[in-house]
């Protein structure tokens, strides 16, 4: 039996933006906005999604990644009971819940940093941060120096070699599992986290909850360094993200196919996406919006664990600037989502259910069948069953003869029920302009 995350179809929520919470956390009391988030659960499930990645959630000062308290729900979103109710409703609906773990750095209001500000060398937390230097100041006027994440001194970097820091973070994960029943953690900045820390985290969480999922944010590098039996179950597949949009913009399916082949040994475990809270919306990246359905077709059928970023099912556009991410993280009402009707939203829902219902996509073997700049076909296999995917990014229809790598007499397009004969182990069909097919091979 496959793990829940191998069958996962994710919906990604950036909650502070979605609910329009104040940009700065200067609230004196808790405001429950999880009631609003709970209203999203039926919509998320209707898309075929069976998992939610929601975050950041820890109490923070501004955008969520400057943690103030690791064991509080951000008061701009709600309190303990509010989040516990959200997780409970998700679980009742068959949806797993994964939250952000921002363990590389804290905010300046975190208790350990505040203690060093007050007591300097005499602070018991003086070794909790990297690069502490009491002989120099910081660019923010502090009486000591320290390492800030990517030079951002609002985000002092934790010392993950310190046993006290590690134990504090392990206990924090245990707290979120035991208090709320979360099913996994996405490790922010996993590309710069200490490998020893991540190995110990895997050991600890293995005992905390069965099938607890560890996914890391990794942009560049050999993903196999992180994804293995000792460390993380998955990382963000930025390589496929890039190749999907540029492969369509350049009419170059070779780029996508090369990327898939390069990552073949770990591809089915990777967390795949076409946009997120840090990346411009896919509708703003594509040169031709007629390619939008194709990007989602490939997202759901290529090896990987697919994820939809909230609002992108509406075809939303959004670009970040050098100083502002807010366009990527807008407030959206559930009413707007419910009332919006479009072929894209319907397609994403159909793809979600196809992925969920067909184990060929849950880690099933991948095989390339046909490849040109503008046409691409591949197969996914599971337990003697085969599905063939074909895509055409050309402005005109294209006739293709796709090899069928298994026995079968007919091929049924799961997108619309159309049936094609399999003759001499080949399927001949015309792929319409900027469209694709998902063909289930059938006997008889």
From TrEMBL:
Record's catalysed reaction(s): Endohydrolysis of (1->4)-alpha-D-glucosidic linkages in polysaccharides containing three or more (1->4)-alpha-linked D-glucose units
Domain Glycosyl hydrolase family 13 catalytic: 8-355
UniProt keyword Transferase present: no
Protein name stated in the entry: Alpha-amylase
Cross-referenced CDD domains: AmyAc_euk_bac_CMD_like
Biological processes annotated in GO: carbohydrate metabolic process
Lineage: Bacteria, Bacillati, Bacillota, Clostridia, Lachnospirales
Keyword Hydrolase listed: yes
């Amino acid at each position: 039996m496959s793990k829940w995350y191998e069958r996962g179809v994710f919906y990604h929520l950036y909650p502070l933006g979605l609910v329009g919470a104040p940009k700065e956390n200067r609230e004196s009391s808790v405001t429950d906005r999880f009631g609003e988030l709970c209203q999203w659960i039926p919509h998320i499930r209707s898309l075929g999604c069976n998992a939610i990645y929601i975050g950041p959630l820890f109490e923070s000062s501004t955008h969520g990644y400057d943690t103030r308290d690791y064991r509080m729900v951000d008061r701009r979103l709600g309190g303990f009971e509010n989040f516990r109710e959200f997780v409970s409703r998700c679980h009742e609906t068959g949806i797993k819940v994964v939250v952000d773990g921002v363990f590389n750095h804290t905010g300046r209001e975190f208790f350990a940093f505040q203690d060093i500000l007050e007591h300097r060398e005499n602070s018991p937390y003086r070794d909790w941060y990297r690069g502490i230097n009491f002989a120099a100041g910081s660019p923010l006027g502090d009486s000591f120096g320290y390492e800030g994440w990517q030079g951002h001194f609002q985000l002092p970097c934790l010392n993950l070699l310190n046993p006290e820091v590690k134990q504090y973070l392990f206990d924090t994960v245990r707290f979120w599992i035991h208090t709320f029943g979360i099913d996994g953690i996405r490790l922010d900045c996993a590309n710069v986290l200490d490998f020893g820390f991540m190995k110990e985290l895997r050991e600890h969480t293995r005992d905390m909850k069965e099938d607890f999922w560890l996914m890391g944010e990794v942009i560049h590098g050999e993903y196999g360094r992180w994804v293995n039996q000792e460390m993380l179950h998955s990382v963000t597949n930025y390589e496929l993200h890039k190749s999907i949009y540029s492969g369509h913009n350049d009419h170059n399916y070779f780029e996508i196919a090369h990327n898939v082949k390069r990552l073949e040994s770990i591809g089915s475990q990777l967390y795949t996406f076409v946009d997120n809270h840090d990346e411009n919306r896919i509708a703003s990246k594509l040169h031709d919006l007629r390619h939008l359905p194709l990007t989602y077709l490939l997202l759901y059928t290529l090896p990987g664990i697919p994820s939809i970023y909230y609002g992108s099912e509406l075809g939303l556009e959004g670009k970040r600037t050098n100083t502002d991410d807010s366009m990527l993280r807008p407030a959206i009402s559930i009413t707007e989502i419910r009332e919006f009707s479009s072929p894209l939203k319907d397609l994403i829902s159909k793809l979600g259910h196809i992925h969920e219902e067909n184990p060929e996509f849950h880690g099933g073997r991948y095989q390339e069948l046909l490849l040109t700049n503008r046409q691409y076909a591949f197969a996914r296999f599971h337990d003697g069953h085969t599905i063939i995917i074909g895509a055409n990014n050309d402005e005109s229809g294209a006739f293709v003869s796709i090899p069928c790598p298994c026995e079968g007499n007919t091929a049924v397009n799961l997108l619309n029920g159309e049936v094609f004969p399999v003759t001499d182990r080949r399927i001949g069909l015309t792929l319409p302009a900027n469209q694709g097919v998902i063909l289930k091979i059938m006997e008889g």
